[in-house]
Amino acid sequence: MPRADCKQCGGTGWISSEERDGISSVQRCACVAEVQLEEAETRAGIPLNYRQASFETFLLPTDNPVLQRALADVMLAVSSFARTYPKTAKPGLLLVGPPGTGKTHLAVAALRSLMARGHEGMFFDYQNLLERIRAGYSEALGAANRDAYRTVLETELLLLDDLGSHRVTDWVEDTVTAIVTHRCNHRKPTIVTTNLPDPDMGSATVEKGGVGAPPRFKTTLEERVGERARSRLFEMCKVIRMPNANDYRIRPHRSTQ
Ligand SMILES: [Zn+2]
Known about the structure:
Layout: E1 14-16, E2 26-28, H1 30-43, H2 65-84, E3 92-96, H3 103-116, E4 121-125, H4 126-136, H5 142-154, E5 157-161, H6 170-185, E6 190-194, E7 206-207, E8 216-217, H7 221-225, H8 227-236, E9 237-241
Parallel strand pairs: 3-6, 3-9, 4-5, 5-6
Antiparallel strand pairs: 1-2, 7-8
This protein binds zinc ion.
């Protein structure tokens, strides 16, 4: 389908090129492929607020050169994964870091650039995915949700956003382990983001308490998804820790927390 208001082709989807030897030829307008890609991104479940996410639209901070450099390195690592695909050393990417560090933007940028090259991909928000899989077990809630589970196993590229953002039950742990193991065993590329700290990533897992309060232990990735899924993920993925402003504070800053 061409774009109805396209200025190049007037919505016909065809552009005629210069006449040569009395014969003019027509060719497909670029808007046809653009519309196809937009439709594929809708089917892939990419949320509207990430539809423009690309490496070009990833903004680096200008007020903190050290953080800027660290984020630029991370962006290069993710874009090099996308560029090298499918010949990447590991089939997956795991982006670890606190909220607001740009994990999802970079993950979607990688997915979109691969989809633009004709690869098939799906975006799933972890919590929403688990709800859909669970609903798929109840007869009343139709086959669409049952298909979510199959899609997550079978799609060429899976982006699983916000892994572990859900309270733990045996069912959740088993489901996540099954998905990760299946994709790992079949070397199916999987891009995962998570807010949860992991001690192997150098993330702090203990937080200072307030005055007179004991330290708090943060929930780790392993506690949320289980040891097996966590170790398969580390096997399958190039693990990238997102730099964040707290690691690269320029001036001493008195925290209010
Ligand atoms: Zn056009």
